Amino acid sequence: MGRYAAQHPVLEQLNQKLEARSDTLRRRIAVYVEKRIQRAYPEAARRQPMAVQKGKADFLSAADLLWLFVIGAFLGDMVETVFCRLTAGVWMSRSSLVWGPFSVVWGLALAMAAVLLRQNQDKSERYLFAFGTVLGGVYEYVCSAVTELLFGTVFWDYSKFKFNLGGRINLLYCFFWGIAAAMWMRYGYPLVLKLMKKVRSHIRPWMTAALEVFMAVNMLTSALALARYDARTSGDAPNGQLEVFLDEHFDNARMEHIYPNAKKVTKAE
């Protein structure tokens, strides 16, 4: 073939031209077919790689985090209320705030779990359980220490439980955090995310802003009421109109009803 091509250069040049034309025709056909597919299936044409889609699906805006926090705070309060009813036989307030059934500890925990674990929600239940057990124990310990430092009050005491650490956490409830993390990421978070996607078009910006203002005022008022409750039970007289207002609207009876397990920490002299 090589000798034949060398003896007939005109035929070799013609063959090269035919190959070039064939390549051109092949490219034109490919472009034509691609355009037809784009016109026939626009959704498929706009579809991006799975990694990009997953990153966009997992993106959580500030508004999403706010709604996740509120939903988690409400669900956590309901779960603890029912748990106390089943184990202690009484209906007990488990709210962290003076207005509404909202547990700030649970709200922050579930929102943080969504942020930290959403990329790993396909992991095994064992992984989610272990992660939730360790992180939940650390988180609960920090919450207990911070609230005692700010308000001079502890809102839970596990000193009577086995395998407790300073009465702030215990092994059994750390396991509960692990179970909660696995259940939330496997079932709760996907369901809430699906519902949020359905109602997102109906949620106006002013609704999110109103919820943000309400929760901010609620948390600030609760913090002031708790601080004044600590000072009042220590024998401090009200100083200023704000503390008089807090004494009138958030007296000891109301605070003890909202925070039945709150225990004032006796400061060492």
Morphology: elongated
SSE class: mainly alpha
Q: Walk across the major sheet and give the strand order.
A: 1-4
Major sheet attributes: 2 strands, antiparallel
- List how many beta strands DSSP finds: 4
| Rg result | 31 Å
Enumerate the spans where pLDDT stays under 50 for 5 or more consecutive residues.
48-57
Please tell me the overall pLDDT: 84
Distance, first to last CA: 106 Å
Work out the helix count.
Answer: 11
Question: Which H/E pattern describes the elements?
Answer: HHHHHHHEEEHHHHE
β content, as a range? Answer: under 5%
Considering DSSP H and I runs of 4 or more, what fraction of the residues is helical? over 70%
Please outline the helices and strands.
Blueprint lengths: L1 H6 L1 H32 L1 H5 L3 H9 L3 H27 L15 H14 L7 H27 L1 E2 L9 E2 L3 E2 H29 L5 H29 L7 H9 L2 H7 L4 E2 L5
Helix pairs in contact: 5-6, 5-9, 6-7, 6-8, 7-8
Short description:
This protein has 269 residues and is mainly alpha-helical. It has helices at residues 2-7, 9-40, 42-46, 50-58, 62-88, 104-117, 125-151, 171-199, 205-233, 241-249, 252-258; strands spanning 153-154, 164-165, 169-170, 263-264.
For the structure shown, list the relevant keywords.
269 residues, mainly alpha, two-stranded antiparallel sheet, two-stranded antiparallel ribbon, 11 helices, elongated
Would you give an account of this structure?
The protein is mainly alpha-helical and 269 residues long. It has helices spanning 2-7, 9-40, 42-46, 50-58, 62-88, 104-117, 125-151, 171-199, 205-233, 241-249, 252-258, and strands spanning 153-154, 164-165, 169-170, 263-264. The strands form two sheets. Strands 1-4 form a two-stranded antiparallel ribbon. It has a two-stranded antiparallel ribbon with strand order 2-3. The longest helix has 32 residues, at 9-40. The radius of gyration is 31 Å and the shape is elongated.
